[in-house]
Amino acid sequence: MKQKIISHLNTIKEELQELSVYIFENPEESFHEYKACNHIISMLKSNKFNVKTNFLQIPTSFYAEYGKGHPRICYLCEYDAVPEKGHITGHNLISAISLGAAISLSKVINKTGGSIVVLGCPGEFISGAKITMAKQGVFDDIDAVLMAHPDVITCESGNSKAIVPLKISYESNSGFTYRKKDNKYTALDACLFTFNTLNILSKGFNNGIDIDGVILKGGESPYLLPSKTESKFYIRADKMVQACGIESKIRRLVDTTSFIMDLKSEICLYELPYEELITNKTLSRLFSHNLKESGIIDIAPPYNTNSGLSIGIISHKTPCIHPFVSIIQDKKIKYSSPEFALATTSYFAQDIMCKTAQALALTGLDLIEKESLLIEAKKELF
Length: 382
Known about the structure:
Blueprint: H1 2-11, H2 13-25, H3 34-46, E1 50-53, E2 62-68, E3 72-77, H4 91-106, H5 109-112, E4 114-120, H6 129-135, E5 144-146, E6 149-151, E7 155-157, E8 162-171, H7 187-201, E9 210-217, E10 228-237, H8 240-261, E11 264-269, H9 281-293, E12 300-303, H10 312-315, E13 324-326, H11 338-343, H12 347-369, H13 371-379
Parallel strand pairs: 3-4, 3-5, 6-13, 7-12
Antiparallel strand pairs: 1-2, 2-4, 8-10, 8-11, 9-10
Helix pairs in contact: 1-4, 1-12, 2-4, 4-12, 7-8, 9-12, 12-13
């Protein structure tokens, strides 16, 4: 079985490389990834996958399936790019890796039983579609979720941060700055007061809690009173319960500021929150073994990222992994840089892509053939 997977993966290697380069050369913003989505769907259909397009009424999402019954192994594709910067986080390789794993595993699924699910997950940079899918119960019937992410290091799957995204707006009276006589507070006063207060309060937060904020709108001209401000914040914490606790305090701060300064305020979520990723140790151990078997030997211990991952919400109900694999040879290249984006098209990166796809496919096969592994993985959820 394993040899058949490996052999077929070698036959589609060039096709996977063309896919990753095509997505790289046609970067598309979150939820507008039409070219990437259509290209991936075409490959899945040509390999006899049953594909549902416009999945959950998200135009650039899809649900593809091959086989019948359980175990149901799910592979995730991400393909959005950072506006004006392209694929600086290597999402073009994520799609090729997951697709290679799913297609090669499908060539033995008729003999092993079980089924393969491939999900097209747009919008990872802004409220990833995986969150909507999870809330709609898409993963309730999935036994394991597998994916791997390009990076400058190769390491076991670790955890991610929980994130609560808040938008705070203040509104005060308008007018000309040269005519202000009433000593009233402006919206900018309230905005700056909020930033300064949060800076002081953050000193008392537990380790692992951070607040990152930016002022998007603070006034139009020195000639006019700054009557409207808008700022956005990311509350990052090790666990969602901690982030929600800080959110509650910020909401009270905004209400108090509004009351003291006698102006209007509004606070709301501007994206969907990201729950922390709880990586599955059983799946991580299994994947690391298969990665070594595929030729990637040097694997560092689990790396806990400070970023938010939409896969986090899935990991609380379904066993998941999100390991990192290095796709660079030049150690000077930094992750999320233009040089990193270009490196995703290199021969070295393409070779790593195929080895990682092989490891994910073999991990899926192990889970299908050995029921005890899935039982062990699911026990971690309780």
